[in-house]
Design a protein that fits this description.
heterodimer, A: about 500 residues, alpha/beta, Rossmann fold, Ubiquitin-like (UB roll), de novo design (two linked rop proteins), 4 domains, five-stranded mixed sheet, B: about 170 residues, alpha+beta, Glutaredoxin, 2 domains, four-stranded mixed sheet, 4 strands, about 45% helix
Chain lengths: ~500, ~170
Amino acid sequence: MAVKPLADTEFYKKQTRLALRNCGVIDPESIEEYFAVDGYQALAKALTQLTPEQVIQIMKDSGLRGRGGGGFPTGLKWSFTAANAADQKYVVCNADEGDPGAFMDRSVLEGDPHAIVEAMAICGYCTGATAGYIYVRAEYPIAVKRLEIAIDAAKKHQLLGKNIFGSGFDFELYIRLGAGAFVCGEETALMTSIEGNRGEPRPRPPYPAVKGLFGKPTTENNVETFANVPQIILHGAEPFAAMGTEKSKGSKVFALGGNINNTGLVEIPMGTRLREIIEEIGGGIPNGRKFKAVQTGGPSGGCIPTEHLDIEIDYDNLSAIGCMIGSGGMIVMDDSKCMVDIARFFLDFTVDESCGKCSPCRIGTKRMLEILDKIIAGNGTLEDVDKLEELAYHVKENSLCGLGQTAPNPVLATLRFFRHEYIAHVTEHKCPAGVCKALLSYNIDPEKCIGCTLCARVCPTGAINGTVKQPHVIDHDKCIKCGACETACKKVHAVYKA
Amino acid sequence: MLKKISKLPFSGTPEQEARLQAVIAECSGDKSLLMHVMQQAQGIYGYLPFEVQAIIADGMDIPLEHIYGVSTFYAQFALAPKGKYNVSVCLGTACYVKGAQDVLEKVMDELKIGSGECTSDGLFSIEACRCIGACGLAPVMMINDDVYGNLSPAQIPGILEKYRNN
């Protein structure tokens, strides 16, 4: 059988790889291979042919928006820092990819580290910064190692350091390791952390463009945003601006995972329909299950149900239905998942990761989690569901930083699209998906049971009674709902959850 | 984040302290390198007991309470020793959706300890960790630097057995 080229496979056919263009193509530890794919040509062009103002104008014209979650126009952000005079300015790369389920930044750092080095130098040139920091998660040791190799090689080739390309522009780059704090993905918290403190966010204004790292004007962008910059500078704004939708240009990388046949990084033009990603690129849902929802934006995002499968993905369309692109995590869930349980999963995460500085987030998310726990345990009421929703809006409106302001989103989104599941938990004391253990019971269908005793033998608490060749019965007072009997009864499937 | 704080007596060696002092000497001019020093210290001692935090406080000329604040803020800093083999089960979204909770429960069941604890022989410890970015292989766990993907609870006893006999 002939082997198909990658570009002809269903998974890659619909993809357009810009940010990921070099990942898996070049040896990330070789600067020569990066040179061979036009590496550092964009920096050379910027430094020798363009003024800082022209570079910023190209970035503005391209329509590139921040890929870390905020979606703020990159060129505009750079112009703010450029406009502030100071003796020292900084460029910061946010590589603290803390969103569970997102790994595009790791792939870019591991597969194309020089693109980030080059982009940061370009940003430094047009904003007037002479030093940059890359803040990387300590959980990504390979990314750190390859960045170190890339920075050393760039220094040796005088692409970092003094008087780059004889232009008089100096730029130094440093790596700082995070230590596992989700809130450090928030720009002011990240800067506080680089300074050697607890990574707590600061109130804005003053914005980082005025008073950022070490009190100096600072431009901060995420890895994927930077990865797009060299191409834009090299080929001009037009090819990039020609892709995508009216307000969201270019392409976006999504980390496709969860209950889907093809998992991995997917880079698609903005405006692609969600259905194409799930059904064509992702190859649909495995195990004969049905699609239920896609979770995007991690703990800050929401979920998209079946009725919105034809949505064209861009920043504004997703936020219109209470979702967000976020950093690009895309977790597909099949119909065996309970949405109340998923909301609880994310809230448990944000409660743990709340830095504790402001009370709406510190106390509000904790109270929300308690209400969810009550609902999942089967003790919730309709008033609890309303209270949960009201509290969610308070936390959203009154928290200091992005973490708290978006922490209620998973709850609000599931309430919006799957309210009936919450209602079933509190009024019928049932978990429709059969996930919440307190709300389900295991039973044996006497019609199907052949009395083989397999279930009674695996039951750890001796809760199953019956004689050989007679239908067995589960004692619900003793049952701990471990599900061992269901697994054991694979011949006749007499054990069922209700 | 709640941290487990060790009650074991401190047993650092002069050799470990010399290595830490060398790191401090290199960084003491720049207080923003505090986290770097703490990461190195954790690499040397395996965790950050108060005694080590005090050495850093003196060497970097930073108040101990600031260092304690930093060490309790970040998930990576451990205030209690870990086992020879640290089992981290990823509880990121993709892993959770694909049954990581069952994997974690199986590991706890097998080792008879909870998450964040260490077995009495010091061989194993368990932690439920944040997304390690291997979502395509979900559910995933790591034992020290070895990654195990596409796990099911049934595979856990066999995997742990390999380390027991080492």
